[in-house]
Structures are given as structure tokens and as C-alpha cells.
Amino acid sequence: MDLYLTEQQTDNQRLSVRVTKTLHHEKTDFQDLVIVETPQWGRLLALDGFFQTNEVDEFVYHEMGAHVPLFTHPDPKRVLVVGGGDGGMVREVVKHPGVEHVDLVEIDGRVIETSKQYFPDIAVALTGNPKVHIHVADGIKWVAEHEAEYDVIIIDSSEPVGPGEGLFTPEFYANVFKALTGDGLMVAQTESPWSNAAVIKRAFGGISKSFPITRLYTCAVPTYPTGLWSFTLGSKKHDPVDADVAERFGDMKTRYYTPGMHFGALQLPRFIQQMTEEAAR
Fold it and tell me: Is residue 160 predicted with pLDDT exceeding 80?
């Protein structure tokens, strides 16, 4: 009898993947954590029943979450990643030679440890990289306690439920603004335009209240709801549409992100443009 792991994506939609082996399952202090082996997606991590990352398509999400903001800022040196305990976002951040210091703030230390064990290629930068500093702490409190410290802040959150709920509020985005340097910028994952339009409007509206430049961009992540995923970037000065990507990109090793993809991702279908316009109002 085949075994499937199912994510209840919305009240009316589910995604199931066939599982050949359960590698790890525990109730942490914050959430239900499971790691399984699948024929389609390799090893897959789920938190509270939501698919977070897997070996096959993870590069799309992590490259687009990291490189769009880091190439938008002309000289990022200090970077904060909130969430992202699997290490994929940090792996992409340290590809930028000008980055000198990366703080990873993850509330659930068990996500970090199990990712090191079961996803070594994703978590590769979490061990032995002198630029990377790992903090098992509440990202909301961390951001509130820092001021004018980071050039780029990446919010690599889970869904807006449980530990991730507070990362989608206007109050949090206002604190992110204060934690950034004078020309700093931030980016947050903001869910699917098809399944989670309300989340996009909430996040885009909250970010645009604090940041004079707010841009939404998309990418294709097949294991996330509907396969079309969004990020929202808030910037004090630098606009991603004006970024000087090609010269700085050089021979960076990526599998999804390219200079052309940077700008293509910012070209939105009309229905998504309307979401952002409504949210900004």
C-alpha cells in the first residue's frame, strides 16, 4: 500500500507526494517536524504539515529569495536572515564576495540541526563558514532590538501560522525598516498569488507603509501551492528594476537566477499588479 504525505494547502486544495521512507519525525518546542524520502522530490522537510524544502526544487526559492535583494543593493556587507533554518538562503547569501557578516536567526534550533543531518547540500554554509553566525532566537524580538545594523534583511518564514504569524504584520515590517541601514532593503516570501491573495495583499500593504519602494516578484516553485510563488521587496533607496546585475553577476554558480531572470521576475501579470495596487491603497 502506497504511503503519501499530504499538505492541506487551502480549505479546497491539497498536494500529496508519495513517501518511500520516513527519515525523521518529532514534535519540537514549536512545531511538528517531519523529513521523508520521496521518489519525486528526494528528501523533503515539512513543518506543521506544510512542505518547506526538498532536494529537487529548493534552489529556485533560495536563489530568488537571496539574489534579487543582494544584487539590488549596490554594496551589501551585513545581512540578516530571519527563519530559514534549513540554511539554503544563507548558502546563497555567502556566494556574494562583498558580504562580510551574516546573522541567521531561527526560532527552532531543531530545524537547523536536522537540516545539517539530512540536507547537507542545503545547509552547507551553516558549518565552518566564518561569515555565518547562527542564533537560535525569536526573529521578531531580534529585529526589534537592532537598529541601523543590516544592509539587507531576508525574511525566510514559514506560512503565516504558528511561529511564522508575527512575521507578516505591519509592526514587524516597521521594525525591519529601523533595523536596516540608511539605504537598506528587505525581502519576504509572500506566498502564492493564486492560493494566498489575501496574504500577498496583507504583506505588500504592510511593507509599503514603511518602505517608499515596494516591489513584488515571482518565481516557479512546483511543490509550493500552485507552483507560482511570490516575494515582496521593500527598499529605502534602491529599486530592483534599476539594479546593475550583469556586471556584478560574473561567473556566480546558480541554477535558476540569472541577470535576465532578475528583471523578468519583476514583470507581473495584470491580475497580480492589481493585487499590489489594491494593497498599497
Answer: no
Whether 48 is a known active-site residue: answer no
Domain at 10, CATH number: 2.30.140.10
What is the C-alpha separation between 263 and 269, in angstroms, rounded? 14
Question: Residue 178 pairs with which residues in a beta bridge?
Answer: none
pLDDT surpassing 70 at residue 161: no
pLDDT digits (tens, 9 = 90+) for 103-127: 999 999 999 999 999 999 999 999 9
Q: pLDDT for 186-196, tens place per residue? A: 999 999 999 99
Same domain, 16 and 105: no
Give the domain CATH number at 124.
Answer: 3.40.50.150
Query: Is the CB of residue 281 less than 8 Å from the CB of residue 256?
Result: no
Q: Which domain holds residue 49?
A: 3-53
pTM of the model: 0.96
Cell (9 digits) for 141 = 524580538
Q: Show the cell assigned to 49.
A: 504539515
3-state secondary structure labels for all residues of 189-203? ECCCCCCCHHHHHHH
In the set 86, 156, 244, 251, the catalytic residue is 156
Residue ranges of E strands in 236-278: none
Sign of the alpha-carbon torsion through 280, 228, 120, 23? positive
Total number of domains in the chain: 2
Q: Are residues 143 and 198 in the same domain?
A: yes
